[in-house]
TrEMBL record, chain A:
Gene3D superfamilies: ACP-like. This is Minimal PKS acyl carrier protein. SUPFAM superfamilies: ACP-like. Keywords: Phosphopantetheine, Phosphoprotein. The lineage of its organism: Bacteria, Bacillati, Actinomycetota, Actinomycetes, Kitasatosporales. It comes from the Bacteria. Residues 5-86 form the Carrier domain. It comes from Streptomyces griseomycini. It holds the Pfam family PP-binding.
UniProtKB/TrEMBL annotation, chain B:
Belongs to the thiolase-like superfamily. Beta-ketoacyl-ACP synthases family. CDD domains: CLF. It is an enzyme of class 2 (transferase). Its EC number is 2.3.1.-. This is Minimal PKS chain-length factor (CLF/KS beta). It holds the Pfam family Ketoacyl-synt_C. It comes from the Bacteria. It comes from Streptomyces griseomycini.
Length: 86, 415
């Protein structure tokens, strides 16, 4: 079965791919409530990640996804959207 | 302080990323020895294009110099600019960032080509896969202002920033802009230009210029001021300088390598080379006037040297018009014949060569150029030792801008 859950590990990989930000997944997990900019990810970087996910899953994410402030908030929104549509 | 009028802009740091050297010392060694490095273009995807020869920056490893996020988010022209800025700041003894007074440090760069390689990659995604595959950094990476922004972000510089988009001569205009900012009270300006026009899309953009040399022999492709002049050869790379208030530089014990003494710019229209004579002459007079410099005080001229017969003639006449009889006696040089013209960065690299020439007491030669067919004392073959206090740097752009900059040896103008 194809999982529609985006994990912390995948988010870390996307941060690297879309914005060149290297972040340890463990660290990202522990600091999941910290703002994205504390990891060096700016709004364009988050927009790039949203684009990557939309292309990967072939569907649109809600406009609010690119305005999420923290990794936790972002993953919750993305995964609830993907799960709801599964 | 009420001494606004007496504030002088001093060059205290130099960074170079050029086809003939990735540091100022390597650049000067090659320039002063007159070693030409023009060669067949080897960059990927370019071998089917009729432009064959250029000045490529080959040993540059962006990943060793700038962080991953800049590699992903910015174009090669910004990588050059960030690398050159880091070298310049290091040379000035200012480290690479987090200044004690961030609002006293500004950045200004000139750009004429933008991020062509990055833009091409994203446009290929647009037409190959669709608009949803275009990355958001396309919105900033191709843009002329990208290097200014990224240098200021990387270093935490929050002073007055800007970008000069005024054609090739904009390289000199950016130096003038920085000098003005310093005279108006900004402590330190990081200034210069870098270009990366050697990628397929960027090269195709240049093919329309009638002034472009498509000769495929590197030794014959760019020979201004000769009867074999057949246009110019493009180059990539750039230079960044640290310009700061001279008194402040001396207070902190920094070496004042030169002062930016005068500048003027004019416009005479795209490819109207005959008209550039008057425009360039007026720019020279304006720059000398601002510097309080008599024509006879000019010890060396770094020529624009476009390599188009009509343009070369106009430049030789402009020098004579502005400097009088001294114009035929003053040593003139064009080290860019060895490395190519890096568009806006070309006159900045020339300004670096001028500062180094003043320091070393040597006029570097004009590689690949012999048998000068104009009434100029063009230095060829090997460097000429000379007592140099004042250099005049000239630049013209393909779109019609003309500019002249006067630089004086460090400390010379203090009296």
């Amino acid at each position: 079965m194809i999982t529609t859950e985006v994990t912390i590990d995948e988010l870390a990989a996307l941060m690297k791919k879309a914005a060149g930000i290297t972040v340890d997944p463990q660290e990202l997990k522990q600091a999941a409530e910290s703002p994205f900019d504390s990891f060096g990810l700016d709004s364009l970087g988050l927009l790039g990640i949203v684009g990557e996910l939309e292309n990967r899953y072939g569907r649109s994410l809600p406009p609010d996804s690119e305005r999420c402030r923290t990794p936790r908030e972002f993953l919750d929104l993305v995964n609830s959207t993907l799960t709801a549509g599964a | 302080m009420s001494n606004r009028r007496t504030r002088r802009a001093a060059v205290t740091g130099i960074g170079v990323i050029a086809p003939n050297g990735l540091r100022p010392d390597a650049y000067w060694k090659s320039v002063s020895e007159g070693v030409p490095v023009l060669d067949r273009i080897t960059r990927e995807g370019c071998d089917h294009l009729p432009l064959r020869v250029a000045g490529e920056v080959r040993a540059f490893d962006a990943a060793a110099i700038v962080e991953d996020r800049f590699l992903v988010q910015t174009d090669r022209f910004s990588h050059f600019a960030m690398a050159a800025a880091a070298l310049a700041l290091d040379d000035a003894g200012l480290g690479s960032g987090d200044p004690a007074e961030p609002f006293s440090v500004g950045v200004v760069t000139a750009a004429g080509s933008g991020g062509g390689e990055f833009g091409q990659r994203e446009l290929q995604k647009l037409w190959g896969q669709g608009s949803k595959f275009v990355g958001p950094y396309q919105s900033i990476a191709w843009f002329y202002a990208a290097s200014t922004g990224q240098i200021s972000i990387r270093g935490g510089f929050k002073g007055p920033c800007g970008v000069v988009a005024s054609d090739e001569a904009g390289g000199l205009d950016s130096l003038a802009h920085a000098a003005r900012a310093v005279r108006r009270g900004t402590g330190t300006m990081i200034v210069g230009a870098a270009e990366a026009p050697l990628a397929p899309y960027s090269m195709v953009c240049q093919l329309g210029y009638p002034e472009l040399s498509t000769v495929d022999d590197p030794d014959r492709a760019y020979r201004p001021f000769t009867s074999g002049a057949c246009g110019f050869v493009p180059a990539e790379g750039g230079a960044i300088l640290v310009v700061e208030d001279e008194d402040r530089a001396r207070e902190r014990g920094a070496a004042v390598r030169a002062t930016v003494a005068g500048h003027a710019a004019t416009f005479t229209g795209a490819s109207r080379w005959e008209e550039s004579r008057e425009g360039l002459a007026r720019a020279i007079r304006g720059a000398l006037d601002e510097a309080g410099c008599a024509p006879e005080e000019v010890d060396v001229v770094f020529a624009d040297a476009l390599g188009v017969p009509e343009a070369d003639r106009a430049e030789a006449l402009a020098i004579a018009d502005a400097l009088g009889a001294h114009g035929t006696r003053v040593p003139v040089t064009a080290p860019k014949t060895g490395i190519g013209r890096a568009h806006c960065a070309a006159p900045v690299l020339d300004t670096v060569a001028a500062v180094l020439a003043l320091e070393h007491g040597q006029v570097p030669p004009t590689p690949n150029v012999l048998d000068v067919c104009h009434d100029l004392d063009l230095v060829t073959s090997r460097a000429r030792p000379a007592e140099l206090r004042t250099a005049l740097v000239l630049s013209r752009g393909l779109m019609g801008s003309n500019a002249a900059l006067v630089v004086r040896r460090g400390g010379e103008s203090a009296r």
